[in-house]
Amino acid sequence: MNPWQHRNFRLLLSGQLVSNLGSSLFVLALFWQVQASTKNPQYVAWLGLAMTLPSVTGFLTGAIVDRVNRQQLLWATDLVRFLLVGGLTVLLMVHAFYFWLVMLAFWVVNLAGTMFWPAMQALLVDVVPIQDRTGAIGFMEASGQFSNSVAGLLGSFMIAALGAVVLFAFNAVTFLISAASLIALRLPRQPVAVAHQDHRHWRLRDWLAETREGLEGLWRWRVIRWILPPVIVMNLAYAPFLALSPAWSADILHRGPLGYSLLILAESVGSLGGSLLAGVLQRRWRGSLPWNAGLGLSLLLLIFPVIPTLWADFAALLAFGLGTGMINTLFLSLIQRRIPDSILGRTFSTLGTVFGAALPVGTALAGILVRSVGLFGIFAAATAGIVAATIYLLTLLQFNTPVGREMTQ
């Protein structure tokens, strides 16, 4: 199980590593720029809403992913994001900071990303053989977390030394690098999975029918029906960690952008390690041990609001990231083994929507309630929700034999 032996995978991973680094620095700089410019956590929450809201409509893109050439779709999406981020960079260089305009551009960038992620996951079928896919998924997931780690480690210093606009420009350039790596792939066959080849006569009802097929395919899978409620709760509760960490660092920890960067670094390093560790554990220990280890580590997030100091929060997020990195990699690998290639695009798009739809709701609630409940109350409630959902998943894995067997085969 060595995905590195495949040229296409090395090329794909290198392009995504650069692109992910640019995106991580862009998000870090943008969130801190909004916090520093407005000094209002509500604006940061609205920015988080712009980042998460596109996931609600992601299931509509799955049929497109399965209909078209996935390689071409990916590099075209990168070019669109280059134009959007490049345009935003130029606009910020010649005009003042207009929050609602920045939020709109950020929303469109993330909307394009809802098509990119499922297409990338589906493209791996054409890049590596089945025996190498768990390792390939682990490395792809780890590339994103590695980029987040570098951004968390260096982001605050780069913001101070270079300014946010320079990091925006860097992100635009990385989209071009990613597009070039995708164009350079030499795939053995055209990655068009849907049997209907007459794209010129693709009607709206065909699109809706194929989208429904992806929804029905997921719903028929027993594992999804059982784990859907706790995962929704976890995503709902995770929203404050995604959107309000700059405010937590500034107002609770009193550590400014350095504290914010270290919080991002902790979870990113943990997720990086968990993504890589998942493949190793799955090869050496079959059964529920890798899943139990990931869920158990996730429970240590309980430390975050109980001991609100920088290093305690760093340790809590490090353990949480390690656990979630393992679980995400194991689950993505499970999907690629169980779902037919012909509907992978629809499956991943639908999955992203179903699991991600709670994020914008949680972000909106955090923005609405932060003034009345306070940052500490928001984070305490969020941590309690994540811990409760994790305990439920552990119980499900141990005592629901059919579901546990499906997850660990």
What is the CATH topology assignment? Answer: Growth Hormone, Chain: A
Mean pLDDT value? 79
Morphology call: globular
For the sheet with most strands, the description reads:
none
Structural class: mainly alpha
Helix content: over 70%
**Rg, please?**
20 Å
The H-and-E topology, N to C, reads as HHHHHHHHHHHHHHHHH
Low-confidence stretches: 191-200
The CATH superfamily label reads MFS general substrate transporter like domains
- Give the CATH level 1 class: Mainly Alpha
Task: Please characterize this protein's 3D structure.
The chain is mostly helical. The protein has one domain: MFS general substrate transporter like domains (Growth Hormone, Chain: A, Up-down Bundle), CATH 1.20.1250. The chain contains 17 helices and no strands. It has helices at 7-38, 41-52, 62-67, 70-94, 99-127, 133-162, 164-183, 204-219, 222-243, 245-253, 256-284, 289-298, 303-306, 310-338, 344-356, 358-399, 401-408. Helix 6 (133-162) runs antiparallel to helix 7 (164-183), helix 10 (245-253) packs across helix 11 (256-284) and helix 12 packs across helix 16 (358-399).
Summarize the structure.
By secondary structure, the chain is an all-alpha fold. The protein contains 17 helices and no strands.
Question: In terms of topology, how is this protein built?
Answer:
Elements: H1 7-38, H2 41-52, H3 62-67, H4 70-94, H5 99-127, H6 133-162, H7 164-183, H8 204-219, H9 222-243, H10 245-253, H11 256-284, H12 289-298, H13 303-306, H14 310-338, H15 344-356, H16 358-399, H17 401-408
Descriptors:
globular; mainly alpha; Growth Hormone, Chain: A
